[in-house]
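Chapter summary example.
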Amino acid sequence: MIKIKNKAEIENMRRAGVLAAQVLIYIEPFVVAGVSTQYLNDLCAEFTKQHGAISAPLNYHGFPKSICTSINNVVCHGIPSETDILKSGDIVNVDITVILNGYHGDTSRTFMVGDVDEKIKSLVQRTEKALHRGIGAVKPGKYLYEVGRAIEKYVTKFGYSTVKDYGGHGIGKEFHEEPFVLHHYSINNKIRLQAGMIFTIEPMVCIGPNYDVDTSTTDGWTVTTVDGSINAQFEHTILVTATGAEILTQIG
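The structure predicted for these 252 residues follows.
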């Protein structure tokens, strides 16, 4: 059941969203060649704690770390590690979710490390644009599938594809609520948008036409592209307003 948030809940979600955005801003200068993803994890966890919040991923269904760090062909749920050392040419998605006063703020960004290949750089830039195409499709009275349609229409013209096994989600006091937000057109997202809905939009865009993914049988979390191709992702938490959409996970 999709939850419509009241004014007090929306204000709490705004605060959580701003903090999540602040974590991403804070960590940016540390995302450089030679650092481990565990180091990034520890910095984000400490920053979150210092601001009176909790790192939502830690121990969520057994997830062992405070953030997700997904490098190159890792689509999502990458587990920070001392042995995963960033190098020039990598891209890495840092996915942040905080719990502040019982409410979740969820956002992610793909960072480019050092000298990144122009084709990969274009993928990253276009994926961020795709996210905003999806956000632009959010309006009360419209159907949720317009979000996926807008994203898919934009990325496929570059020969890219969107991962279909994973998507965005409703969010509030719970980390994952209804609805499940697809990043391609599907009648399964024929859900009428209403003011007060809050959900994430987080397209995972593959550099080629193959969007098939595998989940690691070793750790049970890490999702990678089957063909090893590069994948980028950006994410915001979105409030449906009376006139359109408000991005909760940005500052200014």
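To summarize the output: The chain has one domain: 7-247.
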